């Protein structure tokens, strides 16, 4: 793996901040549903928290990118991290079932803030590294996410037992505070290039949507992420059922499988820079997405023949590898295909589409979960990823030969007369 971006101070600060805050997020994501269930004994209460988060994503996702393209992106990531600290503190007050409404409100608010942070981080990253190192920087960000996913859930289980919801919230808030400090140390101003002087929310939103619709590759990313996110919504709803009913396992084994996929993601991230340097990005993304779907189909049909757990763990490591490869490649392709002044809005449009698709997938799983067996539904999810991968090649065309872009030439000096 190419570690050169980490030698660039500002990117190293952003990378470290992301690793710390993401780990805190995973800690809270494990501790929070356990705490709500313990307080209420009601799966419906947990569902209300999940729905509140999705509503926060959809509500803010429509407009957040406009403001990311208006404002200094470094300040956006700093402010979002600081506000996350403030928003998480009310969780320290939750002691009884009557106070679960606080958890619902916090879930909504944290996701609203995330809709500002994510496009700002994505748009800021190309400013912090040389153009030649952009694929490696995105691969490192993917590695970052998988390391957090590997460490965070295990730590979250320990914190949930030792400190409950308050302990997990305090730890997550502390990680956001550290992340805010690190991002504040990033140098320079990072406003979008050629930001519009006359600001009109509706016009700017339309301009962002056109950036997605009129670029063949960006449009393909939007469509394919939407298709695969329907499957992700189904997976998020049915995964626990798959583990308990199909594999006859429990919460401990569920954690093992999550960690196994994170291990595969780390391996894929380590391979990503070499593969993106060797292969054209569109075929590489197509192959990675397709392999991911095919392995998913095997995973979700394996219990038809056997329920021994270790082959499933091995398959989850394997399925994480193509994810580690294609995520960084997809976002690098998006960044080089989208003008800087539109990058926040285009990212928000793609992310909003994926979020709505996830809600649709969760709804499908909820409606059909009692009528169709879980293995069949999850097989459909895997087939959907295969279709998404193959569709990407058709929709995106051949695409660029490489993800590496040369540094812009400096403007020639004008001789003084």
End-to-end C-alpha gap: 50 Å
CATH superfamily of the largest domain, by name, is MFS general substrate transporter like domains
**Looking at the structure, what is the overall shape?**
globular
**Briefly, what CATH class of the largest domain?**
Mainly Alpha
The topology string of helices and strands comes to: HHHHHHHHHHHHH
- Report strand %: under 5%
Outline the biggest β-sheet: none
The counted number of beta strands is: 0
**Which oligomeric form is depicted?**
single chain
Q: Work out the helix count.
A: 13
Structural class: mainly alpha
CATH topology (fold) name of the largest domain:
Growth Hormone, Chain: A
Number of domains: 2
Helix fraction by DSSP (H/I, runs of at least 4): over 70%
Overall pLDDT level = 85
Give the low-confidence spans.
408-417
CATH architecture of the largest domain: Up-down Bundle
Write down the Rg: 21 Å
InterPro entries: MFS_dom, MFS_trans_sf, TM_effector
Subcellular location: Cell inner membrane
Keywords: Cell membrane, Membrane, Transmembrane, Transmembrane helix, Transport
Membrane topology: Multi-pass membrane protein
């Amino acid at each position: 793996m190419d570690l050169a971006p980490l030698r660039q101070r500002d990117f190293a600060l952003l990378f470290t901040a992301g690793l710390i805050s993401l780990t805190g997020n995973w800690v809270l994501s494990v501790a929070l549903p356990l705490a709500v269930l313990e307080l209420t004994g009601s799966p419906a209460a947990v569902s209300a928290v999940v729905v509140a988060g999705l509503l926060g994503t959809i509500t803010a996702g429509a407009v957040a990118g406009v403001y990311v393209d208006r404002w200094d992106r470094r300040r956006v990531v700093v402010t979002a991290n600081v506000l996350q600290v403030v928003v998480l503190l009310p969780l320290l007050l939750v002691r009884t079932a009557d106070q679960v409404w606080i958890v619902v409100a916090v879930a909504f608010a944290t996701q609203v803030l995330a809709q500002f942070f994510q496009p700002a981080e994505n748009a800021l990253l190309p400013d912090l590294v040389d153009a030649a190192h952009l694929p490696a920087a995105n691969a490192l960000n993917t590695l970052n996410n998988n390391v957090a996913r590997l460490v965070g859930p295990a730590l979250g289980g320990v914190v949930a037992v030792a400190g409950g919801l308050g302990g997990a919230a305090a730890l997550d808030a502390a990680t956001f505070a550290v992340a805010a400090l690190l991002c504040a140390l990033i140098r320079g101003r990072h406003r979008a290039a050629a930001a519009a002087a006359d600001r009109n929310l509706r016009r700017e939103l339309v301009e962002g949507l056109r950036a997605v619709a009129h670029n063949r590759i960006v449009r393909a990313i939007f469509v394919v992420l939407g298709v695969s996110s329907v499957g992700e919504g189904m997976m998020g709803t049915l995964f626990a059922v798959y583990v308990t009913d199909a594999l006859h396992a429990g919460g401990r084994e569920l954690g093992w499988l999550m960690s196994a996929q994170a291990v595969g993601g780390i391996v894929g991230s380590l391979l990503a820079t070499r593969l993106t340097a060797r292969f054209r990005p569109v075929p590489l993304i197509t192959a990675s997405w397709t392999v991911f779907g095919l392995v998913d189909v095997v995973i979700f049909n394996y219990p038809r023949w056997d329920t021994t757990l270790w082959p499933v763990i091995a398959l989850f490591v394997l399925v994480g590898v193509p994810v580690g490869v294609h995520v960084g490649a997809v976002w690098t392709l998006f960044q080089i295909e989208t003008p800087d002044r539109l990058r926040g809005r285009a990212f928000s449009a793609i992310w909003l589409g994926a979020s709505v698709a996830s809600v649709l997938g969760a709804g499908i799983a909820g409606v059909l979960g009692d009528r169709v067996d879980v293995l069949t539904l999850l097989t459909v999810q895997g087939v959907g990823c295969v279709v998404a991968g193959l569709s990407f090649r058709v929709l995106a065309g051949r695409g660029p030969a490489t993800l590496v872009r040369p540094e812009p030439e400096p403007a020639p000096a004008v001789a003084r007369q």
